[in-house]
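Go through the following before class.
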Amino acid sequence: MKGANLDPNVIRTFNAYYEQLLRGEKGMIADKDISPPSANNLIKYEDISEFRSQAMLKKTVVIKLNGGLGTSMGLSKAKSLLPVKGNLNFLDIITRQVLALRGESGYDVQLLFMNSYNTDADTLEYLSKYTDLAKQNLPLSFVQNKFPRIRQDNLAPFESNDDAQNWNPPGHGDLYTALAADGLLDELIERGYRYAFVSNADNLAATVDTAIPAYMEANNINFVMEVCTRSPADRKGGHLCEDKHKQLLLREVAQTPEADLERFQDIEFYRYFNTNNLWLDLQALQWSLISNDGIMLLPLIINPKVVENTPVYQLETAMGSAISVFTNTRAMVVPRSRFAPVKKNSDLLAVWSDAYELNDRYQLVLKRGLEHPPLIELDDRYYGNIDQLVKRFSEAVPSLAACSSLALKGDISFGEEVVCEGEVSIEAQEPVFLQHRRLMGEIKL
């Protein structure tokens, strides 16, 4: 790690996790040690509107997590370069969200991207066209660190002739260490920034609401996690809980003992999931790092993988798990309107459609009158990667504003003036092209 010129704090952090692995610790969080969050740990989003204040913008920096290549969508470049609304990609929309905030408030709202080694160059090259953005007095990006992969058989570092295979991204929990590297955290604080709003670049519904940092300031809160109520579709995702000392925790499925998986998926018992929209008190983060020799020791996630036919462990952490490390933390129950991630091609198709639109602040919102996006199921054989998806919707995307669900099985392409209504299921035995049609119910072609 020294040979790769990694920051000494990154090396110390990895060593702390590696020692846990050597001790046989699995990073598990058992049901017997946790319970659902108590009312005192929860804030209702609708109860804080009175705190809203544009003046908080001069104290708040916006950070977008932009390290992903979108490999699950068949991509080999930054997912944020994908077009999502017309010709606008994620980076365009994020930038315009911030520029709209600047224009509306008169404050020079600062934007930072946490990129990976894979996305930094492409991202900065693309953003160079936004000269107004580049005028800010801080860098546009900082780069996520990397951890060595560990062999499962002898717990030694994995060694490949292809050096890139020897490393893994340490998860977005690396945010805190990466932000402190090269003095960026200190510089932010010196320039008067007290709070950071952090969210995934693929969640275009996550925009700044000044009521949240203002509430934090008024109540001496160091960390807020935006959470939503779990639905059946969220059963396998991480959930919020608290320990016996009423300290909030985030538990992921990889941290759940097999015997507890059924309760993990009980959405009536563990009701809330992490949106990965987080608000941090930067001074509290700085103090935590100073107090712990530069280490932000988050709950460990041991992720088993196979690389070049060799079983390895990837040591990772989740950004939201810092809710168990900070003092004075809260979870804020927010509406689904602040959560519209694009993780799969089916998500992207929904966002492409007229079920979603951009408001005057460039926030991605559901079309007026809709409470939920359409539930979309796509045949992986024909829509599994982004090139396949683009090919089959290159002429037009069907109207989904009145569609509750869409299931496509087979090689189906779409042209102009196709409207889907209600529950739509289409199965095609041969390649088919649909245009100028109103589609409802179950259709076999």
